[in-house]
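Here is an idea for our session: we take a single protein and study its fold together. Start from the sequence, derive the backbone structure tokens from it, and show both lines together. Once you have written the record down, we can walk along the chain together:
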Amino acid sequence: MNDTSIAKKMSCGRTKAEAVVTDVLSPNAIEEVIKKLKNGGNLLHFSLHTDASNKGNWKMFPLAVQFFTSENGVVNKVIDFVENPDESAEGIVKMIQSSLENVGLSLDHVSAFSADNTNVNYGIHNSVFTKLRDANSEILCGNCHAHIIHNTMKKALDKLSVDVENVVLKVYSFFSTSAKRRESLKNVSEFCEVEFHEILRHVVTRWLSLNPAITRLLQNWVPLKSYLISIGEDCPRHLKALLRLTEDADGVEQEADIVEVYLLFCNNVMSLFEEKVKMLEKNVTTSVDLYSIMDSFLRRLIQRRDDGFYGYLTRQKLQRHLMLMLPGRSLQPS
């Protein structure tokens, strides 16, 4: 820092930086949040948010609050970050109560509770939410709607004939462990006159990582397919099965093409899922907005289904695939 003569004379390594953050900045930041919540003696109502996070063999629980002020609008702040090995509903509730008491707050002014849609959080009989309701019957349930959308998408993908998620994972795994394979794919892309794009990693617990990974596969699809066919027996059997590659040249064209159709279909439909998750994750989104977001999401899905709209490229590739499977048959868009 160069804004003061005192700061210029100080060096700040890891130990000093940690001490400044934990002993000075953090307490001051929390104090400012509590001052706003107490609002000069007229305590504001606020919603609570928490989620278990693994740090090695540590189980950490951040505790965040959301409230509204006329000066700042919707405010989201973290007021505590607690290590708590007890993941039971009772253990989490005790942690929440203790954290609130430490900063001079209580459950009496909590308006809603938000967390992952797990049984420990929202079970009917013995959960964090039911125990919080025992202490304050006015607390509303703030399920994670982004989690609901994510789970819906995963359930829907399980119904497809092609395991799209596994295709993304296996292709990334094949190229991420070998610089030689990556370089070979780049060379094939250059030969096919297709711009090379890095294969992206998909993390199964991340809500927004699958569709960008599918997009990247589609960008590399022609050179990717050509490269895997060209290496013959060096292509893993499970990858051949997933991509439906065969030794017969005509078979390769037909089978691999249907995998691309499924990727295009998912890429098109999942863009809507992705859009709604991003809307739900905005800091300005409140419980008032949830119904309109989820209702419009459902309506758009139904509309796409009724219209048979899954993207121009999806329809085009599907027609080509069917024409390969049924030579001589003319297929026109409905």
Observations:
- Confidence is low (pLDDT under 50) at residues 249-253, 329-334.
